[in-house]
Queue: 4 jobs
Job 1
Amino acid sequence: MNPNEKQPFEVLIAGGGVAGLEAALALRELADDRVAITMLTPEPEFVYRPMRVREPFAYSAARHYPLDEIAREIGVELKQDAFKWLDPGHRDVHTEGGEQLAYDALLLALGARLSPRFKHAVTLDDRRIDEQLHGLIQDVEGGYTHKLAFIAPSRMPWPLPLYELALMTARRAFDMNQDISITLATPEDAPLAIFGTAVSETVQELLTEHGILFVPSAHCETPAPGEVLLHPGSRRLHVDRVIALPELFGPSTPGVPKPDGHGFIPIDTHCRVPGLEGVFAAGDAADFAVKHGSVAAQQADVAAEAIAALTGAPGEPSKFQPVIHGVLLGADKPLYLSAHITGGHGSSSEVSDEPTWSSPAKIAAKYLAPYLESRDRAAVR
Ligand SMILES: Cc1cc2nc3c(=O)[nH]c(=O)nc-3n(C[C@H](O)[C@H](O)[C@H](O)COP(=O)(O)OP(=O)(O)OC[C@H]3O[C@@H](n4cnc5c(N)ncnc54)[C@H](O)[C@@H]3O)c2cc1C
């Protein structure tokens, strides 16, 4: 090798989901060939998780994108293996497959671990949502199931899917001329509170129109099958079926100090992991109260900018200032929701039935949304 040739800066991205892919695309744009990117992920595909809520209703399945094709296209080395532990002193990641991968910068984008919170409920696992809910929707269509409760654990996981499932179920019952009584109970003080007041008001109207009873600030228990206890107040619901969101926990990452009891990875405003040089985290794995694709993508962009700056690429890295964008399905038309997040609540709340941001995909992501859109267009041609 020519000794004057500069070695590229080695970036290791652990995780091939929203945050991992967004960061890879951002780094290609911001640091180009200053970086050599390796992506470590056990799954061969990126699945567009938000669209999985439609699967039990017999709509088309969520799209799957082969990661090897994406990696080839954007110049990323793909390793189909899994993160096992971090040796920060030597800047090495040890994998489940026994490899040792060196890095100059590491992005932990491993997503969250899903754990059932309620004993007597169907806890959503989006990898098998059709199998979990298809029969239930058929029972609603056939008039065999009339009372449902949709509940969330006391720490709200992803905001949208529970609302979408409740709305789509109500519509399906209406379309099939079946009576249904749906209660939606969450710890939020208003529907989709993270999106702010204007969104909450619109969504409350939508729920009312669909005959869905929303119970705010609810901490639920399921003491027996078909029974939901709502705190405070100890109100008891008797229903045919209970559908719950899982509780989310941080991923297993030995070597990364985690002060948060739920295992999420601490980050600063540049998505750096405090105390670990060259280590960043983004997405559902990171310690931020809101778990959402658009938030994961913004954190990935912030981390990518900070990593690009380490390579000497031009540009001032920005700080994480969360804005949440979401597309709510289940009404006549999709609703486009946005808010700045301040102190765990949505401010500057905006709701529209027209897109209000560019590349208005279900997951708003600066680089990933247009990239997937162009792949989808090419696939149709
Ligand atoms: C049903 C549903 C609907 C949703 N709807 C929306 C929506 O409408 N809009 C929205 O913005 N968000 C939505 N979300 C939330 C959104 O999907 C997540 O916030 C987002 O996927 C988080 O991205 P991530 O990259 O942090 O994690 P993930 O997308 O979960 O990706 C994690 C990646 O890490 C990999 N991984 C796991 N363990 C390891 C390991 N040990 N080593 C290496 N890699 C590993 C996984 O294989 C995966 O590739 C929804 C979620 C669900 C479940």
Job 2
Amino acid sequence: MPKYKVYVFCDECGIRHLMPVIIALDHGLDQNESTGDIHAGKKLPPEIAKLLNTFVRCPNTGKRYVQEGDDRVFLVPVEW
Ligand SMILES: [Zn+2]
């Protein structure tokens, strides 16, 4: 089962931050989407959905912001 790191785009500093979670998807991602950044907006697994609309602290500015919008969540395959 492929595993993915989760990045979210940060409104505070304008870059992506790695979330402290690894998710495994047993469905959904096409083979040609398995490398590089994946736009996860089409169909959100519940592991990702629960990251949305929660407070995230920006490690660069220290500010907290609400992560909202599944178009700002990116999946990157974990390298083995
Ligand atoms: Zn940030």
Job 3
Amino acid sequence: MSFAAQAVKESLMREIELKDEVGVEGLNLEPSIFHHLALGAEYQEQVHTLFERDHEPHEGFYLPCGFKSPHGVRFAFKWDRRSYIGIIYDGENYILTKRGKELFPIEFDKRPEYFKLSGSDGTPFKTVGGYTHGDIAGSVLNVAYSNECALKDKGLDCLFCNANATAARYAKKEGVGWKNPRLIDEALKSAREMDGVTHFVLTGGFIPERREVDYYLDVADAIADITGVKDFNGTAVIGAPLDLEIIDKYAESPFDTISINLEVWDPHYFEVINPGKSQQCGGRDHWIKALDYAAKKFGKGKVRTSFVTGIEPKPFTLEGVEYLASIGVISLTGGWNVGLGSALEGHRTPEPAWHWDMHNKVKDILKKHDYKYLDYFNVSAGATTVVSDLLAADEGLFPVQRTLSEKTAIAL
Ligand code: SF4
């Protein structure tokens, strides 16, 4: 590697580490600085289709979704006025700051073109799903068919989850509700054609009667009808079915990948943190059996689980990531972002250094079991994470804006 390439890689790694820090601490700023940004016109505004990720509520005014650093690292936006990392506007550019020192100018996410459109029933597409800008592999559309979770009625919500609180705070004002398969498929078609969506995720809270499978298969059939494509690189996010043979139906459907989210690994934590998943779906051992069954049906790297890292001790989660990688399952290990309105509101997630160590250890486990950046992207919930950035950097794949054209990946 040349001296110049080494310097670029070092800067890139500093930006990825900073992304970890922003993910934990959030961003300190006064929302009035966005009067100079055309949010909802040229730049993408937040729409709360499932979770609130900001650390402060913001009814009645827009905030951005994310931004990119000089080396093309995408950061998710989280507002938190207690943070030592912030954004200022200098009259011309938005600048990322840390402890009052200016770091670099940033570029906010452009608004996708399909956000201007609505479905045949008049529902604006921007309320259908979360669109995240990607890099090398494309962008992601993550649709929550239901923005509420039926576990609430039984008092069994997962303790970290704020889906129901988010719906109560924002859904009516933002026009977010239940989506029928036709609407989802029309939005996906436009997002693929106009805004480079290459991965589709279908998720949602629990619905009464656990009738997910019929709904998911309806969506998949409608996608094939509307878009004309059977291979839409879709991930179905489901709760572990009591009858594991239901997974066969997903494996035979056009969904390429499947996700069954454990959230924590240790059996005692599982019972306490996920009371609904524990009591309604056969318990933690059954969830692991479901992941194993799915890996045999879908194949290595086509199944994922998600962990909310930082709730349980690190060695527990890492034991789960290692075991699951050995049976063909990729773990997403996004750091625990303490959710406004969740039962754990007011708690703290571990410090950035804790999460940075976790991200690197997870990346090493995935590499040891021969999973690649693209495997990770194809089961991801959004377009980029710290772990996917680390995998891409290790594989020599990373777009470097301003030094090369926006879509060019360079070998570092
Ligand atoms: S199953 Fe748990 S994580 Fe999923 S929406 Fe319901 S409460 Fe939230």
Job 4
Amino acid sequence: MVATRQPATRRRRSEEMVDTAGIPPETLLEIYETMCLSKAMDDRVWVLAHSGEIALAVSCHGHEALQVASIYALRRGYDWMVPYYRDSAAALAMGLTPRDMMLAFFARREDSFSGARQFPNHFSSRTLNILSGSSDIATQIPHGVGIALASKMRKEDRVTITYFGDGATSEGDFHEAMNFAAVLKIPVIFLCENNEYAISVPRRKQMAIDDISNKAVGYGMPGVSVDGRDVFAVYRAVQEAAARARRGEGPTLVVANTYRIDPHTSNDPDRFYRDPKEITEQRKHDPVLRFSAFLNQHGFLTEEQDAAIAARVAAQVDEATDYARSAPQPVPEDAALYLYGN
Ligand SMILES: Cc1ncc(C[n+]2csc(CCOP(=O)(O)OP(=O)(O)O)c2C)c(N)n1
């Protein structure tokens, strides 16, 4: 995953003090591998969509650091994740597998999200605490607040994180959810993935403020704005928001600023609304390459380890693609399943 590799450091970890926000070395590698897996899945799914094998691809390229770091800052398997359609790296970090995802992309009978009923990129898992969502922008935000309210009423110390884009912060659902959560001190983290666009609408045409976290002020909750391409900045902000929520102090708005490198979806002709030079410039800040360079520079990742990760990731994506491609289609007799009570 390293494009222009820094020379591998010869220093041993124990000889230098590197601030990793308390994340142990083996977890750093796990985070990195999940980011690489997400990127490889996005690349594969993009090709499958353009070759007509699957209906649609939605890439989170540029969002990998913020999504994976935010999940690792929580208690996976215990806390709740309420995603939107761009959250595939976060879903992988929660424990979904490439096979789970490919079965849904190919709309196979075995698809565990919905038995091939959902729109692409609408991940869910009962066992991993990932809520199924709809495609309507921002509707998942009040759902996340509702789940977090249930945790509070049950006196559990579970936190819910709900994700959404910059465009979603213009929706009524966002405002109502923020207000309700702040008034009732609900243990929810609002994580805004600011990628500068809502399809073709740039952020400056969407809102008159520069820092989206200022929106928190109007509801009486803390709002923090961080570099969404920096694993550690996001990890710290979410960890603090989660601690606050578990202490009963209520919600936090975390805004992770990044850039959407790929078009909105595989059907989006983005050349009509943004300059390709802008994308070329932003690619230099690719969060996966940035994290790889950090790990390499500080002796957490050797070239051999990086090659092994790339091989594992490629094998997983190949296996998932082959499995889903040849998995059985849904059958007509199942069409009404999950729609009506029996
Ligand atoms: C209520 C609603 N309005 C419009 C749409 C069409 N739509 C789909 S994605 C999208 C842009 C959302 O942008 P943002 O929230 O910034 O997320 P991003 O896709 O950039 O990650 C819009 C307007 C929709 N799905 N739902």
